[in-house]
């Protein structure tokens, strides 16, 4: 069954819910039991990590189980868990595998709040980290220590868009007994299958393309069979869960994810190609664009691209001209996050935050999320802003 068909027919069995094509929303904290035998039987079932059973609201309901099972199936993993946000997914996936005295390797292009967590909370817990150049590939072997337990990758980086040789990194990590975690939010479960490339745990900000409508926060952790018990135990022990209404919105968004991503990809590539031809632009950072950095790895390992990429202007445009460019955009609204129906812009400067991989560009940079609007209107919006940039 293709992913497109699975999203319509494979997420749940309507017969499980009286014929309803969407599982109902269970608002449940307390779950009662018929008698002690029933309580003890469900308790035994809870101890079997692959069993979905109603025990307490925080540990899942049929609403939760339906979305978790669908996401694991789509990504090719063993099982999935839902947590409150993408950042919660990242931090939980790390903490499940580390203890005081451990060392971890983290991509220098990692999501900013994940970096902050590593540099603050993990540092206080006596877990040391080395931020590595995301283009290292198998040369990452030189950074391993006897205490290295985990590699946290993000490919492509969601701001600077370096592609990583994930199979090579995973091979080295496993040789050293380390777990590989990847933030797969950009590619979604449709465009990159991490478990086919050696990854042990995949995390998503389900807030982005899975929800798809900018109206709910959601984190997803999917694991292989070997890592499942470790992650499940940590998530349950720390009280992580996702609220039922957000789960329902994510499930609803999942139904149209393939259709939306087709539009995001098509419009994103068209606009990236148009931008690459602009005289004001030094580099378009879109791995799906021929000639862009990382394109060969993208072609080898990925089956598609989402609508998020970055642009670097040629040097010489001052701060005020750049502010005028950003402020003149009408359809690309200034805002954090991405993955929704609307187009967004966000300026950035990673030059002071890249200790392992120096930022090689001198010009102003901004990230675009290309939404579901007509690409012709989005190009016209950018064209008008470029006129402001050059003072016309």
From TrEMBL:
<dbReference type="InterPro" id="IPR006233">
    <property type="entry name" value="Cys_b_lyase_bac"/>
</dbReference>
<dbReference type="InterPro" id="IPR015421">
    <property type="entry name" value="PyrdxlP-dep_Trfase_major"/>
</dbReference>
<keyword id="KW-0456">Lyase</keyword>
<dbReference type="InterPro" id="IPR015424">
    <property type="entry name" value="PyrdxlP-dep_Trfase"/>
</dbReference>
<dbReference type="InterPro" id="IPR015422">
    <property type="entry name" value="PyrdxlP-dep_Trfase_small"/>
</dbReference>
<comment type="similarity">
    <text>Belongs to the trans-sulfuration enzymes family.</text>
</comment>
<protein>
    <submittedName>
        <fullName>Cystathionine beta-lyase</fullName>
        <ecNumber>4.4.1.13</ecNumber>
    </submittedName>
</protein>
<dbReference type="InterPro" id="IPR054542">
    <property type="entry name" value="Cys_met_metab_PP"/>
</dbReference>
<dbReference type="GO" id="GO:0047804">
    <property type="term" value="F:cysteine-S-conjugate beta-lyase activity"/>
</dbReference>
<dbReference type="Pfam" id="PF01053">
    <property type="entry name" value="Cys_Met_Meta_PP"/>
</dbReference>
<keyword id="KW-0663">Pyridoxal phosphate</keyword>
<comment type="pathway">
    <text>Amino-acid biosynthesis; L-methionine biosynthesis via de novo pathway; L-homocysteine from L-cystathionine: step 1/1.</text>
</comment>
<dbReference type="InterPro" id="IPR000277">
    <property type="entry name" value="Cys/Met-Metab_PyrdxlP-dep_enz"/>
</dbReference>
């Amino acid at each position: 069954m293709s992913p497109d068909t699975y999203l319509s027919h494979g997420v749940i069995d309507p017969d499980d819910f009286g014929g309803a094509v969407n599982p109902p929303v269970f608002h449940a904290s307390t779950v009662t039991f018929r008698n002690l035998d029933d309580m003890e039987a469900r308790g035994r079932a809870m101890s079997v990590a692959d069993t979905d059973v109603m025990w307490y609201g925080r540990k899942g309901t049929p609403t939760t189980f339906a979305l978790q099972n669908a996401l694991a199936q789509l990504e090719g993993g063993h099982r999935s868990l839902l947590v409150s946000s993408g950042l919660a997914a990242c931090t939980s996936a790390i903490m499940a595998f580390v203890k005081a005295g451990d060392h971890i390797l983290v991509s220098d292009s990692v999501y900013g709040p994940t970096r902050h967590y590593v540099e603050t909370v993990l540092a206080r817990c006596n877990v040391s980290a080395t931020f590595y150049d995301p283009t290292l590939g198998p040369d990452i072997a030189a950074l391993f220590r006897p205490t290295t337990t985990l590699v946290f990758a993000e490919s492509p980086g969601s701001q600077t868009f370096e592609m990583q040789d994930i199979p090579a990194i995973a091979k080295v990590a496993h040789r050293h007994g380390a777990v590989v975690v990847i933030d797969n939010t950009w590619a979604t479960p449709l465009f990159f299958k991490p478990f086919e490339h050696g990854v042990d745990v995949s995390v998503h900000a389900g807030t982005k393309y899975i929800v798809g409508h900018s109206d709910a926060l959601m984190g997803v952790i999917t694991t292989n069979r070997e890592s499942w018990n470790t992650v499940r135990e940590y998530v349950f022990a720390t009280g992580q869960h996702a609220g039922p209404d957000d789960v329902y919105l994510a499930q609803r968004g999942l139904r149209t994810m393939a259709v939306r991503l087709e539009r995001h990809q098509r419009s994103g590539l068209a606009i990236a190609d148009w931008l690459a031809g602009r005289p004001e632009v030094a580099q378009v950072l879109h791995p799906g664009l021929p000639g862009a950095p990382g394109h060969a790895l993208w072609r080898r390992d990925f089956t598609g691209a989402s609508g998020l990429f970055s642009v670097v202007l040629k040097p010489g445009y001052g701060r005020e001209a750049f502010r005028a460019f950003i402020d003149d955009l009408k359809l690309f609204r200034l805002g954090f996050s991405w993955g929704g129906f609307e187009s967004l812009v966000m300026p950035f400067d990673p030059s002071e935050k890249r200790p392992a991989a120096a930022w090689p560009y001198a010009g102003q940079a901004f990230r675009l999320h290309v939404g579901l609007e007509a690409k012709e209107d989005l190009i016209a919006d950018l064209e008008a802003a470029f006129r402001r940039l050059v003072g016309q």
